[in-house]
Amino acid sequence: MTLNRFVVLSGCSGGGKSTLLTELQRRGHAGVEEPGRRIVREALAGGGAALPWIDAAAFARRAVAVALADRTTAQGLTGWVFFDRGLVDAAAALEHATGEAVLEPLGRAHRYHRRVFLAPPWPEIYVNDPERPHGFEAAKAEYERLLSAYRRLGYTVSILPKTDVVARAGFVLERLEV
For residue 28, what pLDDT band results from cuts at 50, 70 and 90? Predict the structure, then answer.
């Protein structure tokens, strides 16, 4: 069996995932930006309605499609490939928004590295912005859903420490040593 090089950074909105991805990229690793952020920027620029606060189901369906496309594109990359969120996050959002049982089939058919890293709720660094207008309570609820989803799918969940980004990147890379 070959080692799955696709590593997910997931967890609480505003928990420092994108900052961590940037640090891992600075260290020479490949990274894939969060599908949701790209979808929101695209919708805001073009007046689209696939926004999580307008049509959560349309947003989640779009996120599933983008996450699948990201996986295909990432096949051409070498070494560790870090995903700021991914297909499991999108499938969990779709299941939450619609009740459709999509998490298990999508999550089992398209696996990532067995260890996933979750950013815990961290109110001291949480901020709203035009792409993240929801409050901290909604972010905490999302975190709990994702923690449950990754565990349901059999991933080993490592909770990121609430520390500076350099130490967080070291934490991730140390746990990926095989």
Answer: very high
